[in-house]
Amino acid sequence: MSQLKAGAKELFVVDDKQGTPTYTVDFAKNVRLLLERKYWGLYNMVCRGETDRYEVAAEILNILGLADTVKLTKVPSSYFSKDYFAPRPSCERLEDKRLELRGVI
Prior knowledge:
By secondary structure, the chain is an alpha+beta fold. The protein has one domain: UDP-galactose 4-epimerase, domain 1 (Alpha-Beta Complex), CATH 3.90.25.10.
């Protein structure tokens, strides 16, 4: 988003990292529910499904109406290895297991 705000016309986005994006409105509703029920602790809270970072970037461009004006270029994670030198797992998906066990979702 900061690159788009700065006027970038091309985004280099990794396509080899799978994840589970989280919609902040859903996240906030679930945090409120946990507080109301007094369910304390550490929880993963993500949306259903899976995608990669490239697909997320493409959808953001579509939503913003920029798909025709901003070029998306797929790159492997190694493209950013100078900036992010710690190894990253290929799958960054999370599960809502504790929320499921509590019957929240």
